[in-house]
Amino acid sequence: MYLAPDAEEEEIASAAAQFLAEAMPISRLHATTGAAVIADMDKALRQALGGMGWFALAVPEEDGGSGLSAVEHALFFREVGRQCGPLDVLAQCLAANLFAEAAQRRAVIAGEHGVALLVPDGSGFRLIGSPAAELALHVTSEAAGIYPLDGLRSENRPALDPANSLRVAEALPAPLASLSGTRIWQLGQLGVAAMLVGIAEAALDLIVEYAKVRETFGRKIGAWQAVRHPCADMAVRAEAARAQLWYAAAALKEGRADAAAHLDAAKHLANLAAHGNADTAIQLHGGIGVTDEHDCHLLLKHAMLLARVFGSRRDLLGRLLHARLDD
Fold first, then answer.
1. What sign does the dihedral 201-269-98-7 (CA atoms) show?
2. Rounded alpha-carbon distances, angstroms, from residue 142 to 178, 181, 205, 265
3. Cα–Cα distance measured from residue 289 to residue 227, given in angstroms and rounded to the nearest whole number
4. Domains of the chain, CATH where assigned
5. 105-161 pLDDT, tens per residue?
6. DSSP state at residue 283
7. How many CB atoms are located within 10 Å of the residue 73 CB?
């Protein structure tokens, strides 16, 4: 890959899209009579993903992984984003890259143990992910750690995003494993940026298809400038975010000194594209766009959550202000 995925990389993206559309479709998040919304990643889905090797894309072959790169990692998580995949999937993948002990790493790669994402919240922490997860991952730009959840006291909280469960905890036990450096943060930032790009693309696809069939005043709404122009803006936002995502993934793969700056730029543009496109899709769909049965509101809520992990707007812009890029 240089500035766009090559044929082999596209095959991986296509395989991921097909698998996730069947195993983790966005339709799972629509409540139906007698059934609850399926949030998080349950044991069956976790083991199915593990069996296909999706958690180990960027894990070296000698450590039991696929030995692929940040590019394949980004391609996979773009498809996860299109289906509003839970953050458990990313946490599991990052944990597989953190564990140095072989048995623990194999268990995470295979999906035998679940991993939730741990986010600081004042003096406490928020746990984003399945209540059945045995482990929690905490990542900063300088280090990462895995914590056991057995016996940890936590309280459930209502979540804006139905794709993820939310709990709060006051304190944490000693970590089971830790790793210094930026690798886990950068893989996490790239994964979230890719998920946001997937959301931006999915929102654009929804309104383009709707504009082909919805009629007003005897014409398809896609014929009106009031619809065409916002759709064009959505396409530009998605393309800008996607291009920067590919560049950041390639920079990380090649070990460029300015990879961190490109990742920050990718996350910022992905934040803008996902939120802007999901919001515009709701507006252009009209009344149906805000109904519980439609996907638009799911994309917006998921984008709002993802925009707040692995780099908020203020943090990203602050670092980009002082960033230095290689020639």
1. positive
2. 11, 5, 37, 19
3. 14
4. 7-180 (1.10.540.10), 184-321 (1.20.140.10)
5. 999 999 999 999 999 888 889 999 998 899 999 999 999 999 999 888 888 998 889
6. H
7. 25
